[in-house]
Design goal:
This protein has 180 residues and is an alpha+beta fold. 33% of the residues lie in helices and 16% in strands. A four-stranded mixed β-sheet has the order 1-4-3-2, with helices on both faces. Strand 3 and strand 4 form a beta hairpin.
């Protein structure tokens, strides 16, 4: 009904043209770092598992990644937790992509469709909504409006991830353009 109202009021855009949430998940661990840090305290894997299950998708179905990267370790941990690469291989994964880009002078975002907006490591983390930059970039990518950084072909699905605490609270959303 909202869509009909807006279209009747003269809006040219249908909600069907907007990215939609196709899956989401949350996970939480300890509020404060325990005396001994172990893999069990990290919550991203659980959040991702719930989101993948709800969307009935897997990592290979994702075309764009918007990852919370307030520190390099957060970015590397997210790559592994979301299954962009195997556990223990995030550093090598990033280094190989970087070296390839430098060797070929290739900064095409389609070759590394992750944080095409630069990420928090590029422009900082505003206090209230740093993970929203990933959502905004995912919507731009899915809409084909990420001028100068558009992934080609236009992504059909995007995964966005944010965390809080010391990896202890995680949210993952999978967005789609509605075309699959």
């Amino acid at each position: 009904s909202t869509e009909k109202f807006l279209l009747d009021a003269g809006s040219k855009k249908s909600f069907r043209e907007c990215p939609i949430v196709v899956g989401c998940g949350e996970g939480s661990g300890p509020m404060f770092p325990p005396a001994e840090i172990s893999e069990e305290m990290f919550s991203c894997e659980r959040a991702a598992q719930y989101a993948y299950e709800e969307a009935q998708l897997g990592p290979s179905d994702i075309d764009f990644w918007g990852l919370y990267d307030c520190y390099p370790i957060c970015f590397l941990r997210a790559l592994e937790a979301l299954k962009v690469c195997r556990t223990g291989e995030a550093g090598t994964f990033v280094e190989e992509h970087y070296n390839s880009a430098m060797r070929h002078q290739d900064t095409d975002p389609s070759t590394f469709p992750i944080n095409t907006h630069g990420g928090l490591l590029c422009f900082g983390a505003p206090w209230e909504v740093p993970a929203m930059y990933n959502v905004h970039e995912a919507v731009e990518q899915l809409s084909g409006k990420a001028i100068g950084r558009q992934v080609v072909p236009k992504p059909k699905r995007a995964l966005v991830y944010g965390n809080g605490g010391i990896f202890s609270a995680s949210s993952v959303a999978i967005l789609g353009d509605g075309s699959y």
